[in-house]
Amino acid sequence: MHIAQTTVVDRPQIEQLLDTAFGPDRQQKSAYRLREGSRPVEALCFTVHDGAQLCASIEFWPIALVAEADGAATPALLLGPIAVAESCRGRGIGGLLIHHGLERARTLGHKLVLLVGDPEYYERFGFTNAPTGGWRMPGPVEQRRVMARLLDDTLALPAAAAISKPAAATSAPLAHPGEAEAGSHQGPQQQGGHDGRLAHA
Ligand SMILES: CC(C)(COP(=O)(O)OP(=O)(O)OC[C@H]1O[C@@H](n2cnc3c(N)ncnc32)[C@H](O)[C@@H]1OP(=O)(O)O)[C@@H](O)C(=O)NCCC(=O)NCCS
Q1: How far apart are CA 145 and CA 143, in angstroms?
Q2: Which atom of ligand 1 is nearest to the CA of 98?
Q3: Exposed (0-12), middle (13-18) or buried (19+): which is 108, by Cβ within 10 Å?
């Protein structure tokens, strides 16, 4: 299976895959409140194809964890949406994309990844809901499904915090086919980042 970086050409098929996997009302979910006015991190959007068929897609979005105690904002990523087409499930593609995305995120200097999902699936990738009991989402959510994964074990996590949109989102178009493949190295300086942060595609 070949993991490729998502391009604009993939977008219509991805929207269709997400509608099928989560339902056409998926944008009502609380996680989508965190994505409004923002863009996924271009370097962390991946697809898997089987011939012409889109098998799977994963995205990571920039968010922040704002501590209630002092308002300090910790930059983080929101994993998702991830979806694997029904005909491609159970072949390890979901796991492959999650491992690949987390490893690439760590390489790019990200320290914390959050998601809203089933603990029964995500615990195998090192996600836990242990620290998230006092973290509020911008909408209704089943608290046990709010999960976190540290990419840097030295990062201190607040006990009480608001999971929020990123402090400032920059925008850049999605890559065009052939511009960037998942296997190619892209350091932060190549992401169009400024003041040490990554650009968001
Ligand atoms: C969840 C999803 C991405 C997994 O993709 P996949 O390529 O089939 O995953 P993998 O092949 O890596 O892993 C399959 C394993 O995960 C398990 N699994 C899948 N979804 C699960 C869930 N919600 N809870 C617990 N286990 C789950 C399968 O039973 C299977 O277990 P096995 O290895 O013991 O047989 C895919 O089923 C999907 O797109 N689902 C619909 C959208 C979705 O729920 N996205 C996640 C948001 S919470």
Answers
A1: 5
A2: 12
A3: buried
Topology of the domain comprising 3-167: Aminopeptidase (3.40.630)
Rounding to the nearest 10 degrees, give the CA dihedral for residues 124, 127, 130, 135: -150
CA distance 165 to 28: 16
Q: Read off the pLDDT of residues 47-72 as tens digits, 9 standing for 90 and up.
A: 999 999 999 999 999 999 999 999 99
- What ranges do the domains of the chain cover? 3-167
Residues with CB under 6 A from ligand 1: 21, 82-84, 89-95, 117-118, 120-121
User: Rounded to two decimals, what is the model's pTM?
Assistant: 0.87
How many CB atoms lie under 10 A from the CB of residue 165?
19
* Residue the block writes with tokens 């300090």: 72
